[in-house]
TrEMBL record, chains A, B:
Top-level taxonomic group: Archaea
Name the record gives this protein: Fatty acid--CoA ligase
Keywords from the named record: Fatty acid metabolism, Ligase, Lipid metabolism
One of the GO biological process terms: fatty acid metabolic process
InterPro entries, alphabetized: AMP-bd_C (IPR025110), AMP-bd_C_sf (IPR045851), AMP-dep_synth/lig_dom (IPR000873), ANL_N_sf (IPR042099)
MF GO annotations: ligase activity
Amino acid sequence: MEHRYELTIDKILTASVRNNPDQIISYQGKESITYEKFNERVYNLASSLIKLGVQKGDKVAVLDWDTNRYLEAYYAVPMSGAVLHTVNIRYPPELIYYTMQHADDRYVIIRDEFVPLVAQNKALFSFVKKWIIYSETGKVPETLEPGVNYDTLVNDEARIKLPEINENSIATTFYTSGTTGLPKGVSFSHRQIMLHTLAATSTLSDPPISLNSKDVIMPLVPMFHVHSWGMPYTSIMKGMKYVLPGRYDVPTILKTIKQEKVTLSAMVPSILYMLITNPDASKILADNHMKIIVGGGTLLRGLAEKARTLGIETIAGYGMSETAPILTLSTFTKRIIEMDDQKRTDYRIKTGVPISLVDLRVVGKDGKDVPRDSKTIGEIIVKTPWLTDEYVKDSEGTEKLWKNGWLHTGDLAVLDEYGYISIVDRERDAIKSGGEFIPTLILEDLISTAPGVNEVAVVGKKDEKWGERPIAFVTVTPKFNMEEVKKHLDTYVEAGRVSKFWLPDEYRVVKEFVKTSTGKIDKKPLRENL
Amino acid sequence: MEHRYELTIDKILTASVRNNPDQIISYQGKESITYEKFNERVYNLASSLIKLGVQKGDKVAVLDWDTNRYLEAYYAVPMSGAVLHTVNIRYPPELIYYTMQHADDRYVIIRDEFVPLVAQNKALFSFVKKWIIYSETGKVPETLEPGVNYDTLVNDEARIKLPEINENSIATTFYTSGTTGLPKGVSFSHRQIMLHTLAATSTLSDPPISLNSKDVIMPLVPMFHVHSWGMPYTSIMKGMKYVLPGRYDVPTILKTIKQEKVTLSAMVPSILYMLITNPDASKILADNHMKIIVGGGTLLRGLAEKARTLGIETIAGYGMSETAPILTLSTFTKRIIEMDDQKRTDYRIKTGVPISLVDLRVVGKDGKDVPRDSKTIGEIIVKTPWLTDEYVKDSEGTEKLWKNGWLHTGDLAVLDEYGYISIVDRERDAIKSGGEFIPTLILEDLISTAPGVNEVAVVGKKDEKWGERPIAFVTVTPKFNMEEVKKHLDTYVEAGRVSKFWLPDEYRVVKEFVKTSTGKIDKKPLRENL
């Protein structure tokens, strides 16, 4: 009992850095450091933070694109005993201020280009004790005080001993991108992150991802967004080459994929869409045979098929800010492995099956598990070792989130005969028509495969008779023909796969969709313009 | 903080059985059950044990070959709150009695063929409250009282609720096969086993094992021996088809490998040797392209090369009873992946690199890490989350095991430039000659590749001038020629890879080696006959 081993984030580095000291962490292919050097910088930074005055439990915020410095903070801040606050830099300024103030951020690591955003409202940020500023040029702006140069901290080798940390100490915090109401804060302990990392690496070894240390990863999930789905931790534990894209810019991303020979990525559907529709994409992507995990929105069949033509293996993943995030992946279970490849496609785009250690149920209003009939809709509820204990300073929200020891996701899903779940709606997006749910995600999935359709969103319009009726919004190519789309859907009605009653009353072509800060289609403005 | 998730063994089943209900557990290919059925039987058994009177912390022993019933006990006993004692059935009867009495076994699950062994000394086992007996025929012997039929327990569906278990509760206990002195007891908590399982599955996804749920595993490490290296837990977590060999018998094993299409196994070198030298082996093994983890003894180059000619990928693993057991695996790190296949062979047979979460050092007498020079010998010391806290009722042994927060393995090793360790000796097997170590394992490795040599063991003979000098014992084929072997070794001396001073003074041909209960060559009788 005396030889307690705390599950703290530094333990990810122990075996990995020792075994792969010369493995590479690359920033846009223009700056590279080895794991060994990275490890040194992380320990220097953690030690420097403490020397600067950071105390156990203090919140240290980061405002940055996806850079190697951000990756350093992912380790160094929790290792110093402090809490890493990954600020959503896609928020409007007032929400950036709101979340930083709500989180009680005391220290802020900030990239030079975000300094003006803060400096013009300096007085608001009086709760910040110290700004830790970096610039790729080495010369940092002096408009924020008191400030210190990040490079000084990370190069200070006069290290002090890091504190012992209990595994249940909070390591990270961030805010949901909630499309309704104010963002809600969630937080995760060292133990929760470590178990998430272990379970994810354990499950991802299954086909078709078959994760292993030969893979070169470039995550395209912003680092401010739910631990970049855990990849800063999982990939380093596996000893993989890690490529950071910086600010997302499609030509730079494609160039970097080519130069660094990236084999693995993860992203929301809209980023995948932007990548594969880029004119230069086909040549670059076809060479790399990439594997891409798509989450944060449904992986529509049309998009998966387009990606397939470029030699890209896609699988779906599902989780949320409250769940660290991974709950399910559409990796193949025994029954799917035994199918022929054509049939497997259906499973790649399902929301997946629970990963190791995840206890997941889909329950009806009566609290009972729904049958595995691909039809009956229920809410996903979960127990895993990596769920946020609460919304920060929000006991009412917390009470709704946790009921009877289960975290209630608010996501509606059906279960198929093999246990794969398919999310059919967010509870708040669901269309209730004539007393029944019309699953918008199923409609969006089918419409996405019609000729000429690029992106699609279905929302409910108030209706006197039915309560609500579905309206489909689409962005299109010149090939688009409304009658063809309707015929396309009719074939699914005839095949008995969708109910006639589900078909949208109306299709509207729009030039583009408004996206949320995490790149999902924002349905709010669509509903407001009905 | 209220939503605590305990890392208990039942959690392995949760996602895995849900996702793969029809995956198969096969006993010698003659009895098969699905994961779903297995899960039911496990829950029935756990519940029945409690109804029988088993209380939290009670020791429940198992005496069995590697059967599906044993696998059920691996889960059900800890899930009932009790402690699984995996009794070494290869011990002589007096040690079986000694360890069961030392462990305070209260309930015993026993296969019919082991009943006579106990029944003839019934009086000695008065500490046992109940014998839980099974027979493949269904008819159990009545010579042990009070007895109950295992089948009754496992089929009792009138389940009671299982108790909540704290993850730090002891789940398993067993005794070392120590070749000197009395066996020592070690024990492991639910948490330790769960973290071992997660880290092992995470690491084994690397090449050349590339573990995934498509693999069909048949472990050939006895289930009484260090959790069968964790495979009863890792393989089920991964949702793999699991094949149990029963009592080890080479023809049956080969037949089962063929019938069940086994792709993955793990075993000690002597079992691998027996398998590949069987006349029927080549055809069967060549078809399956098996991957085999070899541990519990050094994987000699000659054996690895022979296996390779049958299309078998071998890697080495290292651990001990005190470490649950896995510490290192010779899976490929970045530098090895980049090598050509020929060069990689050297790394497959090294003792390997630490797996995730393992902090491993090789330290000299001065307590400092040895250089990565493949020459300097030090002791392996470790910190991981799955080390036994103590030897049961042995504070003196415990004190020697744990010093300054590090578990001292007593194994001597060198480190190469890429961080791979190679064990050169057990501390107690080491030959000290002229004040310097002669690494017997390196000699055994080289001798094993000489023509005509089957198995080899090098031991130290007392010597007036040098203290000790090495003597080599070999089993041989008709091709064996002593002078050829000496010439073979001379080439390594000339190449500067071994010191002339290490060469054995003498070679002795023996008919066969005495093996320990876990199948390793027992050096004790060799030393006694010098």
